[in-house]
Amino acid sequence: MVNSVAAPQARGKFAEDNIFGANNRANALAKEIGIDRVINGTVGSILDEDGNLVMLDVVRDAFHALTDNEIISYAPIQGYPEYLDAVIDQCFGESRPDGFLRACATSGGSGALHHVIHNYSEIGDEILTSDWHWGAYGSMCLDNGRKLREFALLDSEGSFNFADFKAHVTAMMAKQLNTVIIMNSPANNPTGFALSIEEWRQVIDFLKNAVTGTEKNVILVPDVAYLDYSGEKQECRKFFKEFSGLPANFLVIVAYTLSKGFTMYGQRMGAMIAVTADEDVADEFVAINQYSNRATWSNSNSSAMKAMVRICSDPQKVAALDRERAAYFQLIKERADLFMAEADACGLKYLPYLSGFFITIPMTGSQAVCDLLEKEHIFLVPLGKGIRLAVCSVSKKKIKGLAAKIKKAVDAAGAQQ
C-alpha cells in the first residue's frame, strides 16, 4: 500500500505528460549520440535550422534595455495599463471588435484558461472543446473540479463539424447555467486547422440565437496562442470582427499569450481579453479575474510586460517584430509543405493543416508507432487518435524523408489510418 497524505481529490496527480516525457528522452539521447542523429519533433517552440531556440531580435533588444526597476518591481495586479492597451492592440490589429474591451494580465495563455474555467463555470460543469485539443485543457478542468467534453472538430470531408458542435452546445445549455467553449483557432494545436470567417460567423450566429430570450450564458474562449504564425498579419485576424454586437449573456474571452508571438515561452506572460456589449459584464470581468490573479499567483511578470511595451510603443520596433514573425511563419510553412508533399507521395495521411506549429498524423496504435520510431531516434508525441509532429522545431534537413519513416513504422506496427 502506498501512503498518502494528500486530500482525496488530489491523490494520483502527476506532472509529466507525453510531450515532456518524449522530449526528455530525445534530449537524453542527443547528449549521448549527438543532436544531428536525433529528430525531436516534440518541442512546441520555434527552433531555427541549426536547432537553436529562437528569440526574436527585437524582443532580445527590449529585454536588454530594461532598467533594474522594470525587471524586479511588483506589477499591478491587473497588469500595467500600457501593457493591457498593447495586448488589445496586438491581439486584434485592424479587426478590433465593437463593444467594451477589457484586458487582465495572466500567467501565459494557460492563466487565462484557468481563470475562465474557475470563474465562469460551476464545480461539476462540463467545458466544451474539440476532440483535437491541447492535453492541458483536460488537466485544468479536472484540477478545478470540472469535466472536459469534446465535439468532433472535423467532419468526413475534413471541414469544421458544425453539426456536432451545435448538438453538444444544445445539450450543455439544457443542463448548465453557463456554457464555456474553448475554441483553439487559428492554427489549432495539434492539427494546424482553422475555422474560416464563414465558419466563425456560423458559430457566432448560432450561439447568439441560442442565448436570446433565455437566462443562460455562453462564454466563448478563442485560444489564439499561435495567431502570429497563422497567416498574413491582418488577414488572419479578420474573424475577430465577428465578435461585435453580441447580447449581454454572450461573452467572448480571448486567451492571449506572449509565449509564441513574442518568443517569451518561459516568461509566463499573457492576458485574457473580454469582448462584450454590456459595460457591467466588462467591469465584472476585471473585478473577478483581478481577484483571481491575487488569489493564485499574486501579480504578473514585470519584465515581460515592460519589454512588450517597449516594443509596441515604437512603430519601428513593431515593424521589425512583424518582419521577424513573417520570416519564421514562412520557415514553418516551408517545413510543413515539405512534409505534406512527401506524405502525399508515400501515402501517409495527415489531418487538414493550414498553419501553425503542428501537424497531426491520424492513426490507431499511436504509442506503438512512436515506440518503433524512437528505436530509429525519432521522437514524436503520441495522442489518443494519432501522432503530433512539431514542424516549428524540426529543420528542413530532418523533415526530408521523415514522412516515409513514419509510414514505415505505421505499417510495421499494423496501425490503421
TrEMBL record:
Query: Could you say which cofactors this protein requires?
Result: pyridoxal 5'-phosphate
**Which keywords, in A-to-Z order, does the entry hold?**
Aminotransferase, Pyridoxal phosphate, Transferase
Instruction: Describe the location of the Aminotransferase class I/classII large domain by residue ranges.
Output: 39-406
Give the enzyme's EC designation: 2.6.1.-
The enzyme class is transferase
MF GO annotations: identical protein binding; pyridoxal phosphate binding; transaminase activity
GO BP term, example: amino acid metabolic process
Give the CDD domains listed for this entry. Answer: AAT_like
**Which Gene3D superfamilies does this entry report, sorted A to Z?**
Aspartate Aminotransferase, domain 1, Type I PLP-dependent aspartate aminotransferase-like (Major domain)
Q: Which family does it belong to?
A: Belongs to the class-I pyridoxal-phosphate-dependent aminotransferase family.
**Quaternary state and interactors:** Homodimer.
Which protein is depicted? Answer: Aminotransferase, class I/II
